[in-house]
């Protein structure tokens, strides 16, 4: 890939944003869209890949409408998709607190929070349907927290000035997912949705320029099988696992999205990843994933490191004067509650400067002793008991006695497959939902907005836009004898055969760890030209080593977890390069993407709206080739461009 | 630390399984139980052997995928005075140097073995399919605040809804019964106003599905509750029993 | 089968059958134990009570009629209880065809784990008991159908007190069975919850102690010569 040889294609992307004022766009669009007659819906087959919040809600909703839905997922049950792990809550503009919230304010906060790199029309629609989501979930039996009067409780989350976050203890994601999962099971029982568990999508079948099916591998028997349909919906989550260590589940992968990219969909803003500041630091080389602890901990905990670099004394022996409360000193008005990216970057700076704490000196302290002194242990236990237990269970340390150690970790990816307002990718008939698409969060996602987007896409957007596609498209009937099917199957078989044939000496995990380290070091919290160029050298090297020395034991015709992982890592090895490439290309700082070359004198992110107010949508151009860049320019008509400041 | 591992290996669902012994050196006290198995798998892979297949995903105790019986206890026994956790949250500091650890899969007729330590838990989905939902289609919902729910009810409902469907209750039950799992869903929905309409039909259908799937009956031993990483209570079983009796008396079939 | 008629076919239904038949038997045992204690009132008093049982419900019911009805209910209950226990146990065994190499019990009490053995012991004992005291066909040297007091004293005294010891052993089994059974009954009938759990546990303790001790008072008194 050559950064100087990018072929830029301006204004080639039609985001299909409806005309009119932003408040009316979605309503008008819903009226203008074509409908499929209820009795005709059963004639359409729809493939949904992924059964997290977006996938399950989409599959269930379309099943209810009468489409024949086929839902594929790699887990053993749809209830396990990683949406389950979201803790904090889900935003909605209900304004139950009478505190000045509105659809427009949620829209405004989301665009601003995304550092002006999202599409206004999508975000407004998201804010609009946020209220329907809460209604829908309550009706499904999601046990949201209630006040004593029986009304829904709300809290303020992630520094928002209004209380608009609905929650179900610390398990909001789990409860919303179970709601969608149960709706999905209801449809499975009714026969409108067929479930394919432990089945992985390995390629997309494109016939006559339209997405018409997928090639899958049955992860129990190893059997390769293709399925054809009238449209394909990907709801396959983000690519945070490219970093090896992240808060993602072990199985989270970018394979479906990456296959779609290689078949002609565009990959947008791959360098936009979110790093969460309050995770438990790695304990050693054996570490396989990182555990996030709710951000709410920063409400009462004080973050510090020893003022003296290299000070390895236990926290208790470090006097108050020798402690460096770096966030409080640097940001007197926001203190420990600065946004996620600011908190994360500052932690990195102090650790890089040798102030890290813990045996591996890879964390910072989050200290509750002041809060315990002020409020008493019982109050703290009441607020954070579960989190403290979790911390103790993982580290063996007692945060009531000694401060917690925290460090940022990869948490969410804002980038993803480029989609238009209808959530349709550059390949007609291929729709992409949830974290897998790029659309709503810009360069940084607000807390409690991931769940909102997943459910909004699945319940309230795709049922309309997919119907519109089916109603106005003349689709020829296709069968498995089609040459495109054979070609896709051959490509998948080839890749598997190649993986099995390398028969080298290193495990898949070894290479995953290597690429993860390169991405974390150079495409992590702070990026610069030199580092990104190094990453662009290093990642292809790792990729070459992988194809030369990986060992995938066992048989491809059997349950083979090494093979599953090998396929995913092979894709991360390609996607990782595109991430670095995009980061190098975007020579500005915005949201989660911090380029050291582009900062204010105080070290804050400095956007370059003149040059970079666009979505970078990359088009595949062949393996190892420089991808083409399609620019979707972003216009901000309703939220005036401004710079964040937390001083 | 050094560990001796006695692990169940089984090629596929049709083959006879057996225990294999492994020795693992240099296990970090700070690694989780699954990371210890990762280490073993990396060693096996680099030696050219087939690694051990086991289910896992989120590794933060919420997805319910991990499922190992360790030294005779589902999810292994957490020896700290904190609550029971999933295997992925169990850390090696609870074991001692030189210990022999026996690792087996969940064992139940309704959870057929697939490979090594992986079993098929589709039976749980089938129980949910029988009625573990509120029949509301997308778009048909009323304003969320229209029906107040007493906080106490919402809390109990949430206690029950916390179930992660891991199947440890079945694994630990001497009868391989799925009563705790089924009752958790019945309580979660049956206690909320939204779930009232279908409450009695739901319990009849879900209990029938549970029985048909081949799970055993409940003998009120409490082994399920003892291993549950989410503190699902035996109370919910009593509640389900009560609902079933009421449904029967009402003639629901 | 619909409604309660479906109970014999479901695992929970079988447990309900066990719980209801269990309630009947706990009631029966309590009455029986209370009746037994009348033996301390002397031969005339006790024999009068034994005879009186046959006149239960008089004058509405004829001689021994209500007793006969009661016997049908008790026998029916125990048959239902045993049938449900056996079918449930077979099902439970089948639900785990491949057993664990190691399987620790973390919570289950001895009473819980020995229900089936206790049940078998009690079933065998009931047969023995009927042959011994009701029909006088087994290990009873001098059975007199008209003198219940005599039958009890002689029945326990003979054969070096072995029958008395068998009774005591059976009562230990009964104590365990009652403890888990009583608590379990509430759980199965859906009457247990956190608020009442401790109360129900206490009640189970009381039932498990009072009934067996009441029964044991008679053979022990015979063994120690208090009753002659």
Description:
Chain A contains 17 helices and 20 strands. The model of chain A has no long low-confidence stretch (mean pLDDT 95). Chain A has 647 residues and is an alpha/beta fold. Chain A folds into 3 domains: 3-83 and 172-275 and 412-472, FAD/NAD(P)-binding domain, CATH 3.50.50.60; 277-409, Succinate dehydrogenase/fumarate reductase flavoprotein, catalytic domain (Flavocytochrome C3, Chain A, domain 1), CATH 3.90.700; 483-621, Fumarate reductase/succinate dehydrogenase flavoprotein-like, C-terminal domain (Methane Monooxygenase Hydroxylase, Chain G, domain 1). In chain A, the strands form 5 sheets. Chain A has a 5-stranded mixed beta sheet with strand order 1-20-19-11-17. A 5-stranded parallel beta sheet of chain A has the order 6-3-2-10-18, sandwiched between helices. In chain A, strands 12-16-15-13-14 form a 5-stranded antiparallel beta sheet. Chain B has 253 residues and is of the alpha+beta class. Chain B has 2 domains: 3-104, Ubiquitin-like (UB roll) (Roll); 122-249, Fumarate Reductase Iron-sulfur Protein, Chain B, domain 2. Helix content of chain B is 34%, strand content 11%. Chain B contains 8 helices and 7 strands; from the N terminus they run ββαβββββααααααα. In chain B, the strands form 2 sheets. In chain B, strands 2-1-5-3-4 form a 5-stranded mixed beta sheet. A two-stranded antiparallel ribbon of chain B has the order 6-7. In chain B, helix 5 (179-190) packs antiparallel against helix 6 (199-212) and helix 5 (179-190) packs across helix 8 (235-249). The model of chain B has no long low-confidence stretch (mean pLDDT 95). Chain C is mainly alpha-helical. Chain C has one domain. In chain C, helix 1 crosses helix 3 (65-94), helix 1 crosses helix 7 and helix 7 packs antiparallel against helix 8 (194-223). The relative contact order of chain C is 0.13. The interface between A and B is large, with 86 and 84 residues.
């Amino acid at each position: 890939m050559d950064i100087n040889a990018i072929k830029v294609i301006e204004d080639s992307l039609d985001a299909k944003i409806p005309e009119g004022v932003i408040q009316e766009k979605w309503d008008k669009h819903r009226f203008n869209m074509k409908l499929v007659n209820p009795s005709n819906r059963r004639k359409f087959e729809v493939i949904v890949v992924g059964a997290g919040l977006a996938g399950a809600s989409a599959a269930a909703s379309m099943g209810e409408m009468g489409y024949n839905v086929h839902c594929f997922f790699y887990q053993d049950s749809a209830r396990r998709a990683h949406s389950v792990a979201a803790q904090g809550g889900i935003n909605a503009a209900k304004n139950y607190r009478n505190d000045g919230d509105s659809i427009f304010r949620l829209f405004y906060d989301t665009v601003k929070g995304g550092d002006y790199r999202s599409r206004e029309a999508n975000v407004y629609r998201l804010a609009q349907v946020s209220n329907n989501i809460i209604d829908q979930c309550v009706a499904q039996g999601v046990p949201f927290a209630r006040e004593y009067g029986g009304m829904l409780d709300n809290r303020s989350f992630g520094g928002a000035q209004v209380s608009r976050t609905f929650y179900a203890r610390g398990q909001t994601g789990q409860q919303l997912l179970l709601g969608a999962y149960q709706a999905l099971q209801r449809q499975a029982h009714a026969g409108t949705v067929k479930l394919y568990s432990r089945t992985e999508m390995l390629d997309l079948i494109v016939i006559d320029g339209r997405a018409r099916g997928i090639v899958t591998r049955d992860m129990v028997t190893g059997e390769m099988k293709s399925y054809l349909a009238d449209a394909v919906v990907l709801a396959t989550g983000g690519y945070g696992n490219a970093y090896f260590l992240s808060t993602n589940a072990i199985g989270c992968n970018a394979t479906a999205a990456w296959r779609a990219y290689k078949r002609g969909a565009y990959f947008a803003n791959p360098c936009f990843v979110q790093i969460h500041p309050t995770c438990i630091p790695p304990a050693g080389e054996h570490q396989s994933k990182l555990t996030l602890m709710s951000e709410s901990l920063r409400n009462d905990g004080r973050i510090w490191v020893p003022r003296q670099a290299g000070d390895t004394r236990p926290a208790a022996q470090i006097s108050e004067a020798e402690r460096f409360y770096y966030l409080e000193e640097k940001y007197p008005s926001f203190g420990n509650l600065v946004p996620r990216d600011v908190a994360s970057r500052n932690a990195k700076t102090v650790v890089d400067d040798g102030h890290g704490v813990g045996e591996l000196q890879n964390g910072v302290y989050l200290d509750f002793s002041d809060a315990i002194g002020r409020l008493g242990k019982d109050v703290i236990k009441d607020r954070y008991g579960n989190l403290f237990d979790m911390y103790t269970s993982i580290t063996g340390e007692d945060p009531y006695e000694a401060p917690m150690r925290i460090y940022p970790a990869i948490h969410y990816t804002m980038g993803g497959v480029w989609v238009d307002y209808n959530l349709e990718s550059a390949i007609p008939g291929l729709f992409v939902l949830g974290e897998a698409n790029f659309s709503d969060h810009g360069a940084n996602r607000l807390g409690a907005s991931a769940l909102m987007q997943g459910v909004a896409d699945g319940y309230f957007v795709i049922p309309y836009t997919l119907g519109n596609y089916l109603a106005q498209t003349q689709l020829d009937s296709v069968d498995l004898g089609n040459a495109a099917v054979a070609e896709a199957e051959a490509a998948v078989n080839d890749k598997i055969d190649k993986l099995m044939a390398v028969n080298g000496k290193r495990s898949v995990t070894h290479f995953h760890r290597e690429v993860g380290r390169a991405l974390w070091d150079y495409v992590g919290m702070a990026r610069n030209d030199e580092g990104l160029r190094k990453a662009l050298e290093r990642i292809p090297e790792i990729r070459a080593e992988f194809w030369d020395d990986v060992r995938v034991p066992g048989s491809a015709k059997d349950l083979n977890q090494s093979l599953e992982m090998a396929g995913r890592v092979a894709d991360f090895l390609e996607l990782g390069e595109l991430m670095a490439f995009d980061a190098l290309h975007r020579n500005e700082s915005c949201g989660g993407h911090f380029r050291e070359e582009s900062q204010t004198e105080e070290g804050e992110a400095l956007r370059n709206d003149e040059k970079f107010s666009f979505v970078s949508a990359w088009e595949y151009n062949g393996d190892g080739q420089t991808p083409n860049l399609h620019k979707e320019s972003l216009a901000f008509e309703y939220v005036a461009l401004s710079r964040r400041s937390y001083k | 630390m050094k560990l001796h591992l006695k692990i169940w290996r089984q090629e596929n669902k049709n083959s006879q399984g057996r225990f294999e012994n492994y020795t693992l050196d240099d296990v970090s006290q700070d690694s989780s139980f699954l990371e210890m198995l990762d280490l073993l798998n990396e060693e096996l892979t680099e030696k050219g052997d087939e690694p051990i297949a086991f289910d896992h995903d989120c590794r933060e105790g919420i997805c319910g995928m991990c499922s190992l019986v360790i030294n005779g206890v589902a999810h292994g026994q957490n020896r700290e005075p904190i609550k029971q956790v999933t295997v992925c949250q169990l850390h090696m500091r609870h074991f001692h140097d030189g210990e022999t650890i026996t690792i087996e899969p969940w064992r139940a007729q309704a959870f057929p073995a697939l490979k090594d330590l992986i079993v098929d838990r589709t039976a749980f989905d089938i129980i949910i399919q029988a009625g573990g939902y509120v029949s509301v289609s997308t778009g048909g919902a009323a304003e969320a605040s229209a029906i107040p729910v007493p906080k106490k009810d919402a809390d109990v409902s949430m206690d029950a809804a916390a179930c992660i469907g891991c199947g440890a209750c079945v694994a630990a039950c001497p009868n391989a019964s799925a009563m705790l799992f089924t009752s958790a869903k019945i309580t979660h929905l049956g206690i909320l106003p939204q779930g009232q309409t279908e409450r009695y039909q739901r319990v009849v259908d879900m209990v029938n599905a549970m029985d048909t799937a081949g799970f055993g009956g409940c003998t009120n031993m409490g082994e399920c509750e003892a291993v549950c990483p989410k503190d699902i209570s035996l109370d919910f079983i009593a509640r389900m029993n009560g609902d079933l009796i009421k449904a029967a008396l009402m003639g629901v079939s | 089968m619909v409604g309660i008629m479906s109970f014999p076919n479901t695992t929970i239904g079988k447990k309900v059958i066990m719980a209801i038949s269990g309630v009947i038997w706990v009631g029966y045992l309590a009455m029986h134990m209370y009746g037994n204690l009348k033996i301390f009132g002397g031969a005339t008093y006790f024999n009068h009570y034994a005879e009186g049982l046959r006149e239960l419900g008089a004058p509405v019911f004829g001689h021994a009629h209500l007793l006969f009805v009661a016997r049908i209910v008790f026998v029916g209950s125990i048959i239902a209880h045993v049938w449900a226990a056996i079918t449930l146990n077979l099902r439970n065994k089948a639900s785990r065809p491949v057993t664990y190499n190691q399987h620790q019990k973390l919570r289950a009490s001895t009473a819980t784990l020995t229900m089936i053995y206790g049940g078998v012991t009690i079933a065998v004992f009931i047969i023995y008991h009927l042959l011994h005291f009701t029909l006088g066909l087994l290990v009873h040297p001098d059975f007199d159908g008209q003198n219940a007091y005599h039958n009890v004293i002689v029945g326990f005294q003979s054969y070096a007190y072995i029958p008395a010891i068998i009774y005591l052993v059976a009562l230990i089994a009964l104590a365990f069975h009652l403890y888990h059974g009583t608590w379990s009954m509430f759980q199965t009938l859906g009457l247990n919850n956190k608020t009442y759990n401790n109360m129900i546990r206490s009640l189970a303790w009381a039932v498990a102690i009072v009934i067996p001790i009441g029964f044991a008072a008679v053979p022990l008194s015979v063994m120690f010569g208090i009753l002659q």
